[in-house]
Amino acid sequence: MSVKYILGRAARGKTHRVFEDIKLILKNTENERLILVVPEQYTLQAERDLIQYLNTPGIMRIEVLSFTRLAYHVFNETGGITRVPIDQQGKSMMIRKVINEIQDQLNIYNKTAIHYGFISKFIELVSALKKNNVYPQHLKMQLELMKEGMMKEKLKDITNIYDKLLEKSQASYMDSDDAMDLLLEKIDQSSFLRNSHIWIDGFSNFPLQTTAIIQKLMKTTKSTTISLPMDNDEAARDREVFFLSKKIYKRLKSAAREINLKEEVIDLNHEENKYINGEI
Predict the structure, then answer these.
(1) pLDDT, position 277
(2) Which residue among 214, 236, 256, 264 has its CA within the 20 to 30 Å range from the CA of 200?
(3) What per-residue string of b and e applies to 11-46 under the rule 16 or more CB within 10 Å gives b?
């Protein structure tokens, strides 16, 4: 097991370096699986770019996946899906039902909560909270520390809706964020992941939930490569731009050292790079 970090600002050729690695592993292995994980909206384009780079009619041994699709690959192998997947429309209907049931308990959002605009924003909020491992019990703890006032009343309403929503949905339904939690539980049960090399590319940030998944993949796969948009130069004028990337980088390195993984760092910011302002 090993981990490689590919660091670089935008247009420094991180994706090209990932493709180079994939080509090399493809040439030097026969039965091992190769998985490229990219953001959901870029999977098709990444697959086309990879096929073009490899100059082959197809990529039989390589899969280009989002984290969600990777999760369902693992579930198909390990089992354990006992809840029905739910999409945005389903979540909207469920939140509306919850609000109708507890509307008289809401202080600030009593009249506005039923509106579509509120519901769509609440879906985004719940997703962000789950991605960062924040649940109603954490919000309740925060409420105990807050002074009385408008902000506390708003948080009470949000916590009330969130708590009721999970109560109704957790036993029967699973959204994409719930799938990530289940993936975290199932990774070490997956034999195909143990026989895989994985590259993670194209992300500008990783929430805590995804960072935990990457740490688990590092412990399970034959090799894990992560590209990060960052510059380690502390003298750089815009160094604050890379604050989150550096935080994630340190967290991943710490996890790798805990299990004595072999590490390699490729810093493209300090290489002569013919791909700057070029293609990938």
Answers:
(1) 38
(2) 236
(3) ebbbbbbbbebbbebbeeeeebbbbbbbeeebbeeb
Dihedral through CA 24, CA 27, CA 32, CA 33, nearest 10? 70
Task: Quote the pTM value.
Answer: 0.87
Who contacts 30 (Cβ-Cβ below 8 Å, separation ≥6)?
Answer: none
d(CA 48, CA 45): 5
Looking at residue 72, its amino acid is: Y
Q: What is the CA radius of gyration of the chain?
A: 21
If you search the block for the tokens 């997956």, which residue do you land on?
Answer: 190
**Distance between CA atoms of residues 175 and 191, nearest Å:** 25
- Read off the tokens for 139: 């919000």
Q: Is the pLDDT of residue 58 over 70?
A: no
Cα 214 from Cα 220, distance rounded (Å): 10
Who contacts 28 (Cβ-Cβ below 8 Å, separation ≥6)? none
CA dihedral 170, 191, 74, 54 (to 10 degrees): 160
User: Which residues in 154-172 are b (16+ Cβ under 10 Å) and which e?
Assistant: ebbbbbbbbbbbbeebeee
How many Cβ atoms from other residues are within 10 Å of residue 117's Cβ?
A: 8
User: Given pLDDT bands bounded at 50, 70 and 90, which one contains residue 275?
Assistant: very low
* pLDDT classification of 271: cutoffs 50, 70, 90: low
